[in-house]
Write a structure and sequence with these properties.
Blueprint: E1 9-12, E2 18-21, H1 37-45, H2 49-57, E3 71-73, E4 76-78, H3 84-87, E5 91-94, E6 99-102, H4 103-108, H5 129-138, H6 140-157, H7 163-201
Antiparallel strand pairs: 1-2, 3-4, 5-6
Length: 202
């Protein structure tokens, strides 16, 4: 078989972030079963913005002909189902570990003291996929990670609408509005002062 080309291909985004496009974007290359939660956090923390974007938007997906390994679970052999990737848009499959992850949580969950399946530990209990995914989607850390992932992706793809830019724009608008208010107040005071002078002259 021909070896895969793991040489990263680069594209420079409009805000200067280097986006890595590579067939090696498998989160399982960073998160290993033997790593502690703190070690996983450190490995994720070393990622460049372009690498995070590549994992979030271009995670490796097995080919249509890929044969997923089978595990004996719940009384019969079971394997990962490709259709789950469409059913759960946040889910990615690591061919390296034969496990599923929530890519948003894998990148943005930063608690080094806890180990969670789908986050910093691969999920492989295929017979419990439905209930596990449901509880994961309802967790607070998942919802927060999804918000962080959306904001991060937007900051790369549309840097003009990123949170810091929006905050700065809002600050500028507030300054302009406050100056207008101060000018109006100053004009009113000046008008009243002139009126008072006229009254005294009479």
């Amino acid at each position: 078989a021909m070896p895969r080309d793991h040489t990263p291909k680069q594209r420079i985004c409009s805000n200067g972030v280097t986006l890595l496009q590579t067939t090696a974007n498998d989160i399982g290359r960073l998160i290993d079963d033997n790593l502690s939660p703190s070690e996983v956090t450190q490995a994720i923390g070393r990622l460049l913005p372009g690498e995070k974007y590549a994992f979030l938007k271009h995670h490796a997906v097995p080919s249509q002909s890929h044969v997923y390994p089978k595990r004996y679970l719940g009384g019969r052999n079971r394997s990962f189902q490709r259709s789950w990737l469409s059913e759960h848009p946040w889910m990615v499959y690591s061919e390296v570990l034969d496990g599923a992850f929530c890519i948003a949580c894998a990148i943005f969950y930063t608690n080094p003291e806890h180990k969670h399946q789908l986050v910093n530990n691969p999920f492989r209990k295929w017979h419990k996929r439905s209930e596990k995914c449901k509880s994961h989607e309802q967790s607070q850390y998942h919802q927060e990670a999804m918000q962080l992932a959306d904001a991060f992706i937007m900051s790369v793809e549309k840097p003009d609408t990123s949170l810091p830019v929006l905050i700065n724009t809002r600050k500028a608008d507030n300054i302009h509005r406050n100056r207008s208010i101060l000018k109006t107040v100053a004009d009113a005071i000046l008008y009243c002062a002139k009126q008072a002078v006229r009254c005294c002259a009479w």
